[in-house]
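Hello K.,

You asked for the raw outputs rather than the summary table, so here they are, unedited. I folded two proteins back to back in the same session to keep the settings identical. This is the first:
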Amino acid sequence: MKTVFAAIIIVIILPVFSGCGGKNNPDGNGSPPEQKELRLAEQYGLAYAPLQLLRRTGWLEEELPGVDIQWLRLVNGAAIREAMVSRRLDVGFMGIPPFLIGVDGGMEWRLFTGVSRAPVGLVTWRADLKGLSDFTPRDRIALPQPGSIQHILLAMAAEKQLGDPRRFDNQMVTLSHPDGMNALLSRKEVAAHFTAPPYIMMELAEPGMHLVMEGTEAVGSDYTFIIGCVMEDFPAANPGLAAGLERALGRAFQFLDEKPDEAAKLLFSDYNLDEEKLLEYLTWPGVSYGGAVEGLERFISFMGAQGYLKNPGNPEDYFVSAGKGR
């Protein structure tokens, strides 16, 4: 087995950074020049394929000539939040729940685009674990972090099936997707792994592994898995950078939709997979890429009702404001 590194209710489709136009220079009205660097952070997995594509093709550099593009890969949404609060990052990509938790904690950041939908689920090697009710307090569940989308999906499912959304809060083990997969395959320290592509496909391909639950069972419908966010003042201060990022992401979404075979040729080494296997995963049922945001209202409602958010707002409040370019 190779080790890899690497929404119900409401659908919102916006142009990325709507209202942000212009080029990467002052506009002559006395505004300060735009910054000359763009720092972006992603995490692990196939849900970030559009970003991997930008790194491979140089499309972002084409759209933003003269701008120093810097990419980081961080282990979870909490690490991205911390980097953005300290202004060490400009753009972060993560699941909806850690973004909402940041806003609820006072962060002045906003959602600006969807990135991907993907099948995520709870995988186990234990034959006796057929449903959530079979887990005992001793059974550990690996996932990226408390407050991650995997954690909130698990809480949603626990409420539906067991009547207790916090049933598993003390059984979670924080591991990155690659480390979580390795722990699961060792069949020792964790009973199950709540994970995403390509890890979920690779795990289920192993003898004796099976799926306990899938994310859509918890939400009740489709939802956006990964979103992009920026500090609220970024688009107005940097309309040229915002517009260039919008164009580059649009190219990546279209390429993955129309030419997944070519995308697989470009990206297979990034995922330590052969081209055929990566193409299979890129076209797997439930995997898609684009700027639509689905399920935001459902996450806000659930997280507010269960105390994960103290001040839940309306879905539109979480988006970067339109028309705020200079």
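The second followed immediately with the same parameters:
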Amino acid sequence: MINAVVIGDPRRISSNIRALFPETMQATGKSMARLVFALSNKIKFQKLSGQVLRNKTGVLRDSISPSVRADGNSIIGQVATNVEYARIHEYGGEIHHPGGTAYMFDKSSGRAIFVSNNSMWAHLLPRTAPHLIPMPERSFMRTALQEMEPDIRATFENALSEVVSKLGRA
């Protein structure tokens, strides 16, 4: 949370704040873009390059995609992946192995994901596998975000401080 004390004529201050809204959105958008790009890089080149998971095929690492969009009075930054097995790594779960196929059960969503024996998952499945094989949580997205939290706060505070400092000059 960012706290501020504003001293002066409330009508003039309110008018100045409204006038600075476009500049505030622009500064916030630029900061968001830098932070989303930095988070994406942290996930790809630290977390998915050996710190949490080792890179085997590059599919998961290459799927990490940053995006920023403005939605009315909000700016939304997102780092996402569309790879099915990312969720079981992030949150953990179980793999059910009945014979020649495997199914991953994602505890957080309750979804089952089919994985064939010739996939990248086959090396995880022993020949005499029990029916449920636990997959430990290996958070690569949430931990990266938590580690960047101080930088995220400081970046937004600095961006907003620069805009708010113009109130005193207006």
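Confidence is low (pLDDT under 50) at residues 117-129.

Happy to rerun anything if the numbers look odd on your end.

Regards,
P.
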